[in-house]
Amino acid sequence: MQYIFNLLKSIWLVLWAVVMSIILFIPMTLAAIFSVTGNLAFNISKIWAWTMLIVTGVKVHINGREKIKEGMQYVIISNHQSQYDILALVTSLKMQFRWVIKKELLYVPLFGWALYAAKNVFIDRSNREKAIASINKAVNRLPQGVSILVFAEGTRSKDGSLQKFKKGGFTIAIERKMPILPVVVKGSRKILPKGSLIFHSGNIEVVVCDPIPTDQYTHESIEELINITHNVIEHELSIS
To answer: What pLDDT score does 26 carry?
Structure first.
């Protein structure tokens, strides 16, 4: 009985993801044509995210949003435990940002096009230099005040523990003098663990931490900036 129940839940999740991708495909395509900034496409993507949260019985709560300065361009650094991190961040931060994501997602039917239409940044994780160049090029095209969001661990954590951070997002922050905005997502792994399609209804908490200025950092001191950011996020994760 439990197997059948879990199977139905998986089918429900996939079904809604496909249905919403089909429904929003034309609006996203039109947004890609008429919105050069990608802002409209990003806003439409929130509909997809909200729907997926609603049909799976997941509620998102956010703390610290007042720390985000309107019009400021950040490099948002977040932990990554579940695909639901994406839904939680899109719907709760209430700011324009673009994802830095692996290029493989570009080839997912409909979903990949939606990401492309919203002017997200696709990177080749097998080549660090190309990845940073891609981010740099994308930042050059961003409208004023639009931030970028990086899952600095590079992939979802299997056990929930915070993994080592990669340098890419921090390199851009230092070069552009963009402040780091640490954001912590809690509870998403309980909703949908890595490698599973069996969701569990519940709550996700998003916590916005104090921004970290990068003016004083250089490429030589980048590890210090990475460690500070890692410690901030790790500390917040330890608070129940």
So the answer is: 85
Q: Give first-to-last CA distance, the chain, whole Å.
A: 33
Give pLDDT, residue 125: 65
Element spanning 131, H or E: helix 128-141
Q: How far apart are CA 98 and CA 91, in angstroms?
A: 13
Tell the CATH topology of 2-238: Glycerol-3-phosphate (1)-acyltransferase (3.40.1130)
User: Is 9 a residue whose pLDDT tops 80?
Assistant: yes
pLDDT digits (tens, 9 = 90+) for 132-155: 777 777 777 777 889 999 999 988
Instruction: List, for residues 196-238, the tens digit of each pLDDT value.
Output: 999 999 999 999 999 999 999 999 999 999 999 999 999 999 9
Contacts of 46 (CB under 8 A, 6+ apart): 90, 91
Candidates 114, 125, 67; CA nearest to 86 is 114
CA distance 125 to 105: 12
Residues 6+ apart with CB under 8 A from 80: 151, 153, 155, 156, 157, 185
Residue 47 to residue 126: CA distance in whole angstroms: 32
Q: What's the per-residue H, E or C state across 71-95?
A: CCCCEEEECCCCCHHHHHHHHHCCC
